[in-house]
Design goal:
seven-stranded mixed beta sheet; 10 helices; 7 strands; alpha/beta; 241 residues; single chain; Rossmann fold
Length: 241
């Protein structure tokens, strides 16, 4: 990503409805995994570190991030040592070390996604899991994806194919961010017309609108506790060896 995108992320992710709501959903999903006490956790592509305090509730956390600006910010913010690393060929960790590996909106930034998942899977303990979130629907491709250096968006089928090609079993695969899907279509259409690369993920709305969007988005965690969603702006996968 461009450095301005990391700066926007650092400024927004503690309060913006999308970042906060996604963390609430992820927290609910991780709570259902019944991880071992003091689980060994790795976040790949930690960005500016907004998820690290959440992950620390579930165990001992390590992290890696390619971008130097984001890595430095995450180190200062979290107290977690965020090291330099690159997918798929520079993973500075021992094999079979982690109970949980997280890639939150990372895989779409990596051209060799299958090779990257194969490399990551070697870091998993035999009963470990990988939790992945990615943007959905290639037909929603926009200037926003270009700005964020995405290589692709995923469908259920293409994400399942990617996991299978990496010799990973899909334990769970569902859409999320479904309730705000109609609003997102309108915003993307407007951005396309006016040639804007911004998205609701980077622009801070008014406090009232932010609180409302957060309430709607984060409420999906109650649905995802019991099942999946048939559509939505994002996909969530839980995979194992």
């Amino acid at each position: 990503m461009e450095q301005f995108a990391y700066r926007e992320m650092a400024e927004a992710e503690n309060a913006h409805w999308w970042f906060v709501g996604r963390r609430k959903i992820i927290e609910s999903v991780l709570a259902g995994l019944e991880l071992p006490k003091s689980a060994s956790i790795l976040e790949v592509g930690a960005g500016t570190g907004g998820n690290l305090s959440l992950l620390q509730r579930f165990g001992h956390v390590q992290a890696m991030e390619l971008d130097a600006y984001a890595r430095d910010f995450a180190n200062k913010r979290s107290g977690v040592l965020v090291v330099e690393g690159r997918l798929p060929d520079n993973l500075p960790f021992e094999e079979k070390q982690f109970d949980l590996i997280c890639l939150f909106d990372v895989l779409e930034h990596v051209k060799p996604d299958v090779e990257s998942l194969k490399a990551i899977s070697r870091l998993l303990k035999p009963d470990g899991r990988i939790v992945i979130t990615v943007p959905a629907y290639q037909w929603m491709w926009s200037e926003h994806d270009v700005t964020l250096h995405h290589f692709r968006r995923y469908s259920v089928a293409t994400l399942q194919q990617t996991l299978s090609a990496a010799a990973l079993q899909s334990e769970r695969l569902t859409h999320f961010n479904a309730l705000l899907f109609p609003l997102a279509l309108i915003v993307r259409a407007a951005n396309s017309i006016f040639k804007s690369s911004r998205s609701p993920g980077t622009k801070m709305p008014s406090p009232l609108v932010n609180a409302l969007l957060l309430k709607v988005f984060s409420s999906e965690r109650h649905i995802l506790r019991f099942g999946g969603l048939p559509f939505g702006l994002s996909l969530l996968a839980i995979a194992k060896l």
